[in-house]
Amino acid sequence: MAGGGSGVVDDKHRDYPGKMTIFVFLACLVASSGGLIFGYDIGISGGVTSMDPFLRQFFPSVYAKEKEVVDTNQYCKFDSVPLTLFTSSLYLAALVASLFAGYITKKCGRKTSMLGGGVIFLIGAALNGFAVNVAMLIIGRICLGIGVGFSNQSVPLYLSEMAPAKMRGMLNISFQLMITIGILASNLINYFTAKISGGWGWRVSLGLAAVPAMIMVGGSIFLPDTPNSLVARGKDDKARAMLRRIRGTDDVGLEFDDLVAASEATKAIENPWSTLMERRYRPQLAMAFLIPTLQQLTGINVVMFYAPVLFKTIGFGGTASLVSAVITGLVNMVATFVSIATVDRLGDASSFSREAPK
């Protein structure tokens, strides 16, 4: 409901005219690159914190522990408050940023939110790549987290609103695909940069986060805003014109009327939170809460984030741990392709019936 009306009207059973146009495909491809910045961050940090030159320069106490022969738990080698702050500051910043990103995305549009997130992420990548002390690392990570918070909030919404209803699941999962590609790319980059002589390979790993950020920033400049967002901000004529363009047909009256009705229904809701708690919305609320919660509780994000460190602490060598992380990332990416191929055929959580507010 906070997204400007998308999803209030049950479009699952609508047969809107139109097709998947090249324009929509390219727009969604560029927008989904926002997933690259999140995936790259998940994969890059664990590899960098397993590199001796990085630890020696910024976390010498951890480096000293790692070189000691100890009989205690191997995880104790990485027991460091500054190192924990380095790794966790991104996610804390992303959590805080996401609380404001929804409002900005609604008021200013999905495009503006993605552009702002990309710019802040780019600043964070530069700070990390040229870091000379722990403070620069942490400030850079905070900027990265803000960028991730904005992109994770705006990109899936953008993809859902641009995609034709019958292909919405497939195109929305392209965001997840980009995350897995980012993870795999970062694992591969860590593997090769760890071999750079001179001990500056970690700078390449952290600095290359600027590449997906530039793709997102550059793409956001040229991306159009979604019809849903335009309608929510009172730009009906532009919304109708954009709908014609992305659907490849002039026969968009039915879909446009639904967008307007959804937007008006959303604006008429005085207290969105109390409305959300109504019995008719409980299935959607339960799934929206349980799916991400249970996904986090599986621990897979921890595994993907700390993969090289985890493999190293159980006895793998430096190179072997990085190779193992690459294999994990590859399997993750392949599994996502299976989801893309099946989600719209077999269904997902969106198959729950949705009733328009009365």
TrEMBL record:
Entry keyword annotation includes Ribonucleoprotein: no
Q: Which UniProt keywords apply?
A: Membrane, Sugar transport, Symport, Transmembrane, Transmembrane helix, Transport
- What this protein is called in its record is Major facilitator superfamily (MFS) profile domain-containing protein
Which family does this protein fall into?
Belongs to the major facilitator superfamily. Sugar transporter (TC 2.A.1.1) family.
Q: Which PANTHER family match?
A: SOLUTE CARRIER FAMILY 2, FACILITATED GLUCOSE TRANSPORTER, SUGAR TRANSPORT PROTEIN MST8
Alphabetized InterPro entries for the sequence: MFS_dom, MFS_STP/MST-like_plant, MFS_sugar_transport-like, MFS_trans_sf, STP/PLT_plant, Sugar/inositol_transpt
Primary place of residence?
membrane
Every copy of the Major facilitator superfamily (MFS) profile domain together lies at 27-358
Q: Where are the transmembrane segments?
A: 20-40, 83-103, 115-132, 171-194, 200-223, 285-307, 319-343
The gene that this protein is the product of is ga10740
Of the GO CC terms on this record, one is:
membrane
Q: How does it sit in the membrane?
A: Multi-pass membrane protein
Would the keyword Membrane turn up in this protein's UniProt record? yes
Q: Which Gene Ontology MF annotations are present?
A: monosaccharide transmembrane transporter activity; symporter activity
Its subcellular locations are: Membrane
Give any Pfam family that matches. Sugar_tr
